[in-house]
Every structure is written in C-alpha cells, then in structure tokens.
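Lab meeting, action items carried over

1. Structure of the two-component assembly. Owner: GW. Status: complete.
Input record:
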Amino acid sequence: MARFDPYENNGGTCVAVAGDGYCVVAADTRLSVGYSILSRDQSKISELADKCVLASSGFQGDIKALQKNLAAKELVYEHNHNKKMSCPAMAQLLSNTLYYKRFFPYYTFNVLGGLDSQGKGCVFTYDAVGSYERTGYSAQGTGAKLIMPVLDNQLKSPSPLLLPAQDAVTPLSESDAVDLVKDVFASATERDIYTGDKLEIVVINSSGIHRECIELRKD
Amino acid sequence: MFRNQYDTDVTTWSPQGRLFQVEYAMEAVKQGSACVGLRSRTHAVLAAVNKAASELSSHQRKVFRVADHAGVALAGLTADGRVLSRFLRSECINHSFVYDAPLPVSRLALRLADKAQVCTQRSWKRPYGVGLLVAGLDETGAHLYYNCPSGNYFEYQAFAIGSRSQAAKTFLERRFEGYNDYTPEQLIKDALSAIKETLQGEKLTSSNCTVSIVGRKDDGTMEPFEMIDAKRIQEIIDSMEAAEEAPAEPSAMQQEEPGTDAAAPAPMDI
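Predicted assembly:
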C-alpha cells in the first residue's frame, strides 16, 4: 500500500549574482511533474521588499505558501518598525521560518537576493531547513549542478585569503552579470529537462527593481 | 440619582436600561484631542490634532496605517487605540493571506465593532476607551466609519470626535453635501479647516496636526494610505490663509490647484 507522499518536485532553477550596487535574481518559469509540463509561465520569484527578492525552486505548493508567509511577516515588520525589511533581516527571517518546520519541511530551495544597508549586492543561499550563508552568487534547483560550476569558474575570487566570502561581490558590471545569467540558463536548459520555457530576470539596484523576460528552449 | 448604584460593573443594567460603564467609556472619547474624517467618492481623509503630554515630550500618535487601503484616527485612551490598531492590522493581513484581496472597509469596521461589543458583556473586562474613525478604500469606493466603545458603528460622509469636536461638526454639517465630488486637495483643506475650528484661536501649523489620505486616482491607480508630510501640510495651510486674507484675489490660490476656488473659499467666511 503506497503511502500518501505530501511532496512533489516541480523542478526549475534559480540563480542570483551580487555586484557592487546591484543584484541579479533569475529563475525559469517552467512547472513540471515527472516527465510532464504543467505550465510554461509560472513565476518562482517574489518581491518581498523594495530591496529584497526571493527566488524558490522545489515543490510549488510549499513555494507559494512560503512566499505568502514571508510577505505577511514583512508587512507586520513594516507596521511595527515603520520601514520595509532590509535584505539581511529578511535572510534571517527566512532561515527561522524554514527551521520552524524542521520536522515537516518546506520543500523549497531558495535564493534570496538584494541590496544590503550599504547598498552593496547580497545573495543568501539556503537549504530546505534554513541553513544559510551569504555569498556573492548561487544557484539552486534542478539545474544548479549544471550552473554552479560555471559561476564558480567565472565569479569565484582567486583565493579565499584575498577576499572574505561576504565581500565576494563580483566586479562585473550589471549588464555583464545579466548576460552571464542568460548564458548559464541557456546552457542549463540544454541538458536539464526541468529547466526551460522562459527566464525571468529581476535586477535590484539603487533605482529600484526592474524585470526582464527572455525566451528559453521549450523542449 | 441612581447613576452611582448601577455603574460599578459593565454587566449591570440601570433601571432605565442603560449600561453606565459603556457611557462612561464614551465620555473618555470626548476627553481626547480632536480628530476629523471626511470622504468623497474616491478619497478619504483623516486629520488629528497633535497633543503632547508636556512641552518636553513628543506628541501622541493618533493616526495609524492599518493596511495599504485603510487607516484609523482615534480619540480617547490612545493606548487602547494602539492595541486595536494592531488587531486591525492583523485582521487585514489574515484576510488578504486567505482571500488574496483587501478586507472591505465595512467588514473591518464590523470586526472592530464586534471586538468592542465583547467588552460590554464580560464582567471581567472593561470597554475600550477609544473612538476610532476608520477610513479606507475598497471596490465600492471610499468609506468613513466611526466605531464607538459601545460596539456601535456608523458610516459617515464626514465626522469629528474628541474635545471641541462640536465646532468641527458644525463646520462639516454646512459643507458635507458637496463632498462626494470634492478633489483630494479640497478634502484636505476642509479637514484642516475643521481641525482649525477645534483649536479655537490657537494657530494651526503643520506641527500641531497630522493629516492622512487614501484613495483612488482618476486613472484607476490606488493612492495607498499615507500621512501627508509636514512640509506639504504647511504649504496647504499657508495657501488657505492667503485665500482668507485676500478673498478678492483668488489668483493667490490658482497656482496650486486651478479651478478649485469655487468650492474652497475662505472657511471663516459666512
């Protein structure tokens, strides 16, 4: 007798890259189950605050629930503190929210991107139960294993002694970072069946948040 | 004569069928500093007099944002008001979490009224000593409600509560019939004029009043609930005074809002 499985992997990939004064957060828009496609146009990205964007891959039910939960908590914070949550504050909140369900986790693989209080780009990467780290770049989801090595090659600082991880924001310009993200997604789309259809790119910088959508291979 | 015998408990009726504790709570509202609210079809404005406990302290917050689409102004025991604002905020967040839509203002007023009623029917509680003007925008337009400690609530075109509010109410009674078609700027001006009536002689400046507005613009986009900043309030006050001093020269006001001098003459006239 097969037991009811409360989880399902709906696939997809999320990436974020931090720069000096900007942050790029990107995710594909394909929703799958097994070998089928459920939607070619389902967003994985949620704008939680004016300098903080969350991209989540994994089980869509938990992604939506988590993103709604965080949005509500952010509103409570705004009412109490009279300002929107900063990205590092949201990072801690996300970690706590995930660990709260340590024994029935949110099946979500998250990447949080935004600007910190100094205006520098920041990326936080998570596992399903809230373990997190601030990095200069990250990828999560089904295509992450294809993308992360490329990002390591392009963005990683030459020696860990030269730059501490916190300051590992890439010296690339905003448009170069966006181009890099487009290229890695195009590559991941080739070999990962769960990644494709469309790529949603969100760039956060001092002038705000702006979105871009480009087509990916649909096979 | 019998008032003192039946006023110890909120759950004791008087022989005339009154609950004195509830009526005393309404008295507390009348002691608080004044607030006014007014609305048009598309916008609602709340204004409050800033009262400071002493010259050394900052003034009490009397206007609270409850959600993007709604806010409250209160008079009376402001601590009770703060707690109720937190409740209203939580109700709005929970509703939009479940229904993905903003809580309609009438439902918000109803939740508040039901909460207030509970305190009139429990012997271990006391009524909230604060009256709230709830202003908001929903699908049916802009709304203004007044919630009393008794648990009653009414919808208004314009209203004033708190000390010396009768002066403001008299002012509003004369003018409210045109409010549905007022522009936001006209509403703000009338709100400030109503507040001015309650100050009775004291000069109206941006430091002794708070004004907030919520509404939907002509193009359909929403203007979320927000306090108007002090600089802008002072500009509006200044333009109102300029119009008063020189009623024969409407051009003084024209630069700010052309075409509104017909509906916003000097408020002290008549």
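2. GW to write a short summary for the group page. Key points so far: The domain at 13-216 of chain A is CATH 3.60.20.10 (Glutamine Phosphoribosylpyrophosphate, subunit 1, domain 1). The radius of gyration of chain A is 17 Å.
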